[in-house]
Specification:
By secondary structure, the chain is mainly beta. It has one helix at residues 15-28, and strands spanning 2-3, 9-12, 41-47, 53-59, 64-67, 72-77, 81-86, 91-96, 102-107, 112-117, 121-126, 131-136, 142-147, 152-157, 161-166, 171-176, 182-187, 192-197, 201-206, 211-216, 222-227, 232-237, 241-246, 251-256, 262-267, 272-277, 281-286, 291-296, 302-307, 312-317, 322-326, 331-334.
């Protein structure tokens, strides 16, 4: 199925199938009976290889929304479920990704900010209590709470270790994922926020210094600092390049991961905050626009802008859908 202009959806059929559909639709003469009145219908054109078009109707896709705790921020996917950090509730909510059903709510530290999955456990940065909580993903049991720097914000997993950015102490903490042991603390830029792993290195978005720091994951050695837009907020890796949201510039910067070279700067919505890569495209939450922007990762072309809740913050991909935490709506949206 291909998305056409003005909401038109196009499906290509073999000639024989198209002719059969044509006869059927001719006998109907309109939208099929039983079309739910609550759904918005958009036209679908069925096209055979000879471009014979037949008009039918199909219910438009809708964004779903699910309530969570107060002021949700970070979002992560564990392979089955969605985890949401609720900043003002000091807990995390686990949702079944397939249905949005709440599976549990688990207390963590004060003002949890971001969430990451290490293959077995969930890690949560607690901005207000200067620590990180480790939860068993299977049942939400707290496995440990580990001190980090001042006002921890971002969290990332590098395959063996957890990296936490500390806004108030201008550094990042490296913890061994297996037991939470402190492996090092490394200085970066001013007010570091988002963190991402590129397969070899750690990238840190520095809000106050409007740049990103690249650290070698093996030992925390600084490999470079690269200027981006104003107030770098978060960072994501697409398999080859690093993407950075620039809060006050209302755009995102794409950097070549191997060199830090700027490959492009692309306008999005107001106050872009977080990003997620879906295997082909980059999704950006626009905190000031109540929307998310979808960009083609290969070109930076805007593919669409979609309305979500109030003050969208964290973004995650579950293999099929995009999840967005709406800080001002106390909900998450599923697209």
């Amino acid at each position: 199925m291909k998305q056409g202009l003005s909401g038109l959806k196009i499906v290509f059929f073999p000639v024989a199938t198209a002719l059969a559909v044509s006869a059927t639709l001719s006998s109907l003469g309109a939208a099929p009976s039983g079309q739910p009145s609550s759904q918005t219908a958009v036209p679908v054109t069925y096209v055979n290889p000879l471009q014979v078009a037949l008009l039918h109707w199909y219910p438009a896709n809708k964004t779903m929304s699910f309530p969570v705790g107060a002021e949700p921020q970070g979002v992560a996917f564990d392979g089955t479920d969605i985890w949401v950090a609720n900043f003002d509730s000091s807990n995390v909510t686990e949702l079944q990704a397939s249905t949005g059903k709440v599976l549990g709510t688990f207390a963590v530290g004060t003002h949890p900010e971001s969430v990451a999955f290490d293959g077995a456990n969930i890690w949560v940065s607690n901005y207000g209590s200067n620590n990180a909580t480790k939860l068993r993903a299977s049942d939400g049991t707290v496995l440990g709470t580990f001190a980090v720097g001042t006002n921890p914000w971002g969290v990332a997993f590098d395959g063996a270790n957890i990296w936490v950015s500390n806004i108030g102490s201008h550094n990042v903490t490296k913890l061994r994922a297996s037991d939470g042991k402190l492996l090092g603390t490394f200085n970066v830029g001013t007010y570091p926020e988002g963190v991402a792993f590129d397969g070899t290195n750690i990238w840190v978005a520095n809000f106050g210094s409007s740049n990103v720091t690249k650290l070698r994951a093996s030992d925390g050695y600084a490999l470079g600092t690269f200027s981006v837009g104003t107030n770098a907020h978060n960072v994501a890796f697409d398999g080859a390049n690093v993407w950075v949201t620039n809060w006050s510039s209302n755009n995102v910067t794409e950097l070549q991961a191997s060199t830090g070279t700027v490959l492009g700067t692309f306008n999005v919505g107001k106050n872009p905050q977080s990003l997620a890569f879906d295997g082909a495209n980059i999704w950006v939450s626009n905190a000031g626009s109540k929307s998310v922007t979808e960009l083609q990762a290969s070109t930076g072309t805007v593919l669409g802008t979609f309305t979500v809740g109030t003050v969208p913050t964290g973004v995650a991909f579950d293999g099929a859908n995009i999840w967005v935490a709406n800080y001002g709506s106390n909900s998450v949206s599923k697209l």
